[in-house]
Design goal:
The protein has a five-stranded parallel sheet with strand order 2-1-5-6-7, with helices on one face. It has a two-stranded antiparallel ribbon with strand order 3-4. The protein has one domain (about 10-120): NAD(P)-binding Rossmann-like Domain (Rossmann fold), CATH 3.40.50.720. The chain has helices at about 20-30, 70-85, 100-105, 120; strands spanning about 10-15, 35-40, 45, 50, 65-70, 90, 110-115. It is of the alpha/beta class. The longest helix has 13 residues, at about 70-85. It is globular and about 40 Å long. The protein is built from four helices and seven strands; from the N terminus they run βαββββαβαβα.
């Protein structure tokens, strides 16, 4: 289990303004728990007054953790890209994983990640 004790800044890849989706529920949950959340979604401009970023590269601050709530077919591509940018702490929400992703994560010794736990349950 990943240690979340010192995590304050979180990028949420797949954030959305659709209240039925986990990209919204997780966003609101983390905001309500006083995390500094950077929503990332190239198809959105804002979620309830919060600026949404097109990509991790657009962030002014470097998040300590990247949370993924996107389909498996794009999760691996994002993870490899963010890894190449120097990010090492990843949280993959249930439903984002794939065998290819697991293989990538296991091939890099310096990645800290969670693959089966829900960030909403594991934070307080």
């Amino acid at each position: 289990m990943m240690n979340l004790e010192n995590i304050k800044k979180i990028a949420l890849v797949g954030a959305t303004d659709n209240k039925e989706k986990f990209g919204y529920k997780i966003f609101k949950n983390l905001i309500n728990k006083d995390f500094e959340v950077y929503p990332v979604n190239p198809l959105k401009k804002e979620i309830e007054g919060y600026k949404v970023y097109n990509s991790i590269e657009d962030l002014n601050e470097k998040p300590e953790l990247i949370v993924f709530v996107v389909p498996p077919k794009v999760t691996l591509e994002y993870a490899k890209n963010f890894y190449s940018l120097g990010f090492r702490k990843f949280w993959f929400q249930p439903g984002t994983e794939s065998e290819d992703l697991k293989n990538f994560l296991n091939s890099e010794e310096d990645i800290e990640y969670s693959l089966i736990d829900c960030i909403m349950v594991e934070t307080n």
